Structure formats: C-alpha cells, structure tokens
C-alpha cells in the first residue's frame, strides 16, 4: 500500500442533490461518497440534542456552543469531531468536498515560510455545526457562512498531517425538503446558489460560475486587485478562486460523470442514486478501469486506493439521504466503505440511536484527537466499518486485486438482494412509526431502531459468509489481520 510520503492531496469525494421535481418519490435526495485515506475508520454515530450553551472544543478553536442543538446522525473520521456527511432531526442533510483555491495556496505558502494563518474551523466541523444549529437548509447555510467569516478554515483535515500538507478549503451541499444550497468557499470568502429544481453535482473544484445567488462582500474587488480575475461586470467565481496550479483532471471527469448519470436517469430514485455512487465509468467510453475497479487507472466516483498512491485512498462511507418534508420521516441510507462492495442500510434520527457496531471505531473508539497527532486506528472485529474494509481486501484477493473482477459481482448479488427487499419494506415501517410518533415517541424510536438492527444483522451475516467463502474460516482471517498488516492500509 502507499506510504504516507507518497499520498496525494485529498482531492476526491463526490456529492449531488436531486430536487423534488426530479426525484421519483417527490422527495429531495442528497447523496455523497466520502473518500478518505485507506484504513481511516469512519463510523456512523447518533448525536443527541444538547442544551445549555457552554464552550465547544474543536480541533483548533474553542467557540461558544449554541443554547440548543438538533439531534443528528453523522459519519466522521475516527479522530474528528466534525462530520463528512450527516442528517439532522429536522430533515437537513449536508455533505462537503475539498477545494483547492488561490487563498488556500497563499495560506500554504505563508505557513511554509514560517508565518501561518490563525487556525480556523475545519470544513468537517462547519458541516456538523450546520446540522446542529440549522433547522432548515437556509438556516444551516447562515450558520456556516457566519462561522466561516468569523473564524476562517485554516487547519489540517487529514489525520497525521500538518496544515501545509493536509489543509483544504471546502464546498458544501446543504439540503432539505425544499431543495438546498451549493456553498463554495475560498478562505473566508464564499459564493452560494439556491437549488430548487433539477440536479446539481459537486466535486473537488468550484462549480459556481457567473450565476450565484449570494456572495461574500468584496470578493470581486479582491479578485481584481489580486490578479485573479479581469475587471468587468461578469464575475466568474470559479475562474477567480480556483488555484491554477492544482490540476482538475482528478475532479473534472468525476464531476461530469455524475452529471451525465443523473441527466440520463429520468426520475431519480434511491436505487439509482446508489448506482451513481457505485460507478467506475462502467458503460462509458472509458468502459471502466482497464484491469479492475480496485486497481484503478483513474479516479472514479466509487474510489479505490492504488498501490502507486495516485488516488486518494478509498471511499470510506457513502450515503443517500431522503428528505420528504415535515409530515414524513427523513431517512439515511448508509454504507460503510466502498459502496461497490458494500450495502446501504436504512437509518432514522428518530430512532435516537444506531446499532453499536456502526458506531464503533477500532483501537481508537470514541476518541477525538488533534489532526496532526491523530494515531492510526486498527482493526477490531466488533467494528462494522472495519469488517467492510476487511471484505474489500478479501474481494480484491491481494494488493493487485487479481480476484476482484470475479468476486465483486458475487458481493453485489448478495447485497443487492438485501437492498431491494429493504427498499420495499421501508414504507410500511415508516407508516407504523409515523402513526406512533406524536403519541408515543419511544415506540416510534423502537420501530425504526429494530428495523435498522435487523438490517445490520442481515448485512453482517452475509458479509461474514462472503469472508469465509473468499478466505477461509472467520477466526483464521481475523488472526491474519495483525496490527502490522492493518497499519499497511493506513
């Protein structure tokens, strides 16, 4: 596997929004693949509402907490307080992307010269703060903009790296039942566009050009003074802030592939959204990777680490959030690890919990650590996330993935059958839970929680059978996953 010295910048993740008018069920969809270093565990956790204010200790800053927050589900790198993706009790969902901008490049230059900028709030932290404080997509947007302008975002978003090697600016997709916002940032500056119809995809480059609905004060003048943009009435946000020294070949093909798949889909349902997140350019003029998706020739929407280190690790978790409005239940379909070898299980904030294996990291379960000194997490058979990384490696059959092309269809056939059945069962489960929501919230939570637990148990049973089929007895394969072997993935 790649050594830390050869790892490239965090230039993958893909997020898209499908507004209600394009969604098959008439409910907004927000979908995201979170791509992170291979071996960086990303559990999914339930975070209850808080009251009383106080102080929040973030990676680099202490900030006042809100007097009241919203309960939410969030998937986070094991060391991080913030989230890569999440859904709150009011039906607000958010995903983020790394951006490489001119202000970021200048901040890195200053840091390398010994005069670093004041640390700020990481993009993953801004995402969680938006979920905790925003009862609508509009409110979450206002929260995130205010915090960005006050504190900035300079800091490392990569465990084990200093900001000079791990910092990035961020774009966000912020969604609710009415649609949502694209928020793209460059240092403390930003632009936003309202998405009320159709679809919108983001990747690791600014996508907002001349049509923005809102923008930070003074940005066009700054861009002209700095030589980022010619003077004139047609200000192009992406042209102004994109770092010209960061190549877009890592993001542009994935961005356009996501847009193509959504444009060709007609009405987009949950299953179709999952298919986009599993894509490796199959059926395109590229016809997928030359050898196998797990030994990629280029960066794909469903991301896999390449031994040469040119890709940004693996997809660490994936979600499709369904946001139907106040009289219904918002739900999250979540898959641990690469979605092409994973299975999406349904979850609801109203369940007030997630099954314990989903929330478990490995050796660093429950610990939040500063990014520069974050220690590697290691395999734990009680962690659902680690089990799915184990399945990915077993499906590959080795670093060069000789067995992936034969084994991955076997994995998909087994998990597709589960997903299709759960998709058919969810409406009845939700109707029962909705009937109890007002008069008996505890029963509502129990109905939803029991269903998720049954799905997780089924998924785990299928996973363990696949591991045995591919590698031998489960005890033997667990024994082979020594600390040294797992560390090679990190």
TrEMBL record:
In terms of superkingdom, the source organism counts as Bacteria
Parts forming coiled coils: none
Alphabetically sorted, this entry's keywords are: Dipeptidase, Hydrolase, Protease
Gene Ontology molecular function, alphabetical: dipeptidase activity
Name the InterPro entries on file. Answer: Peptidase_C69 (IPR005322)
The UniProt entry, under Pfam families, shows: Peptidase_C69
**EC category:** hydrolase
- Which Gene3D superfamilies does its entry note? Penicillin V Acylase, Chain A (3.60.60.10)
Catalysis performed (reactions) = an L-aminoacyl-L-amino acid + H2O = 2 an L-alpha-amino acid
Enzyme Commission number:
3.4.-.-
User: Family, per the entry?
Assistant: Belongs to the peptidase C69 family.
Q: Could you identify this protein by its name? A: Dipeptidase
Protein species of origin? Terrabacter terrigena
Q: What taxonomic lineage is listed for the species of origin?
A: Bacteria, Bacillati, Actinomycetota, Actinomycetes, Micrococcales
């Amino acid at each position: 596997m790649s050594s830390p010295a050869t790892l490239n910048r965090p230039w993958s993740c893909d997020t898209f929004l499908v507004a209600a008018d394009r969604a098959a069920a008439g409910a907004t969809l927000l979908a995201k693949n979170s791509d992170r270093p291979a071996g960086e565990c990303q559990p999914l956790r339930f975070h209850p509402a808080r009251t009383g204010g106080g102080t929040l200790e973030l990676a680099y800053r202490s900030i006042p907490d809100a007097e009241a927050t919203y309960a939410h589900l969030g998937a986070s790198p094991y060391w991080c307080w913030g989230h890569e993706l999440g859904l709150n009790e009011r039906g607000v969902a958010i995903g983020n992307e790394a951006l490489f901008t001119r202000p970021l490049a200048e901040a890195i230059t200053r840091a390398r010269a010994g005069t670093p900028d004041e640390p700020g709030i990481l993009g993953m932290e801004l995402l969680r703060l938006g979920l905790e404080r925003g009862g609508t997509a509009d409110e979450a947007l206002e929260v995130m903009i205010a915090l960005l302008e006050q504190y900035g975002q300079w800091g490392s978003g990569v465990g084990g790296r200093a900001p000079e090697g791990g910092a990035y600016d961020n774009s966000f997709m912020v969604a609710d039942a009415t649609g949502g916002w694209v928020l793209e940032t460059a240092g403390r500056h930003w632009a936003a566009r309202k998405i009320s119809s159709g679809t919108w995809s983001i990747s690791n480059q600014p996508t907002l050009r001349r049509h923005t609905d809102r923008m930070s004060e003074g940005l066009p003048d700054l861009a002209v003074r700095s030589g980022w943009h010619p003077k004139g009435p047609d200000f192009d946000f992406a042209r102004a802030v994109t770092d010209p020294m960061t190549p877009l070949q890592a993001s542009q093909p994935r961005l356009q592939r996501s847009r193509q798949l959504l444009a060709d889909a007609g009405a987009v349902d949950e299953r179709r959204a999952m298919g986009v997140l599993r894509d490796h350019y199959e059926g395109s003029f590229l016809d997928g990777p030359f050898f196998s998706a797990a030994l990629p020739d280029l960066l794909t929407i469903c991301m896999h680490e390449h031994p040469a280190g040119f890709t940004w690790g693996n997809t660490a978790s994936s979600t499709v959030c369904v946001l139907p409005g106040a009289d219904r239940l918002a739900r999250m379909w979540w898959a641990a690890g690469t979605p092409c070898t994973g299975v999406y299980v349904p979850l609801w904030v109203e369940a007030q919990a997630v099954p314990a294996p989903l929330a478990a990291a490995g050796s660093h379960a429950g610990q939040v650590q500063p990014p520069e000194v974050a220690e590697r997490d290691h395999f734990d058979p009680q962690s659902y996330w680690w089990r799915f990384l184990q399945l990915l490696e077993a499906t590959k059959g080795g670093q060069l993935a000789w067995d992936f092309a034969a084994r991955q269809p076997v994995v998909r056939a087994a998990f597709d059958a589960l997903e299709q059945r759960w998709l058919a069962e969810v409406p009845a489960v939700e109707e029962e839970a909705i009937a109890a929501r007002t008069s008996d919230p505890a029963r509502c939570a129990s109905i939803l929680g029991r269903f998720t637990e049954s799905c997780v148990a089924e998924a785990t049973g299928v996973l363990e059978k696949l591991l045995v089929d591919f590698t031998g007895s489960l005890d033997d394969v667990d024994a082979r996953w020594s600390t040294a072997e797992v560390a090679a993935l990190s």
